[in-house]
Amino acid sequence: MAITVEDVYKELKQIEQKMLTKEEFEAVIETLEILANPKIVASLARAEDNIKKGKIRKVTSVKELLV
Questions:
Q1: What CA–CA distance (Å, rounded) separates 67 from 61?
Q2: Is 40 helix (H, G, I), strand (E, B) or coil?
């Protein structure tokens, strides 16, 4: 059985559907870099805990962040 250009095209389209975009790949790399840093992971865990405990405040301006 001969392989046609259409067969190759269909196979390439299937491969393409499984590939990440450049932006998706960069997001994965960034996530891995964050998760590889224990200080950042601990900080995120504390922030999540504070949110669950209601220790948050609404900020409507940059000036409020500096107070």
A1: 11
A2: helix
The answer for residues whose C-beta is within 8 angstroms of residue 28's C-beta and 6 or more apart is 20
Residue 46: enclosing H or E segment and its boundaries? helix 38-52
What does residue 16 show for φ and ψ, rounded to 5 degrees?
-60, -40
**Residue 3 confidence (pLDDT):** 93
Return the residue matching tokens 């504390």. 46
Report the C-alpha gap between 33 and 26 in whole angstroms.
11
Q: What is the mean pLDDT of each run of 10 residues along the chain (67 residues)?
A: 94 94 96 96 96 90 86
Sketch the domain layout of the chain as residue ranges.
20-66
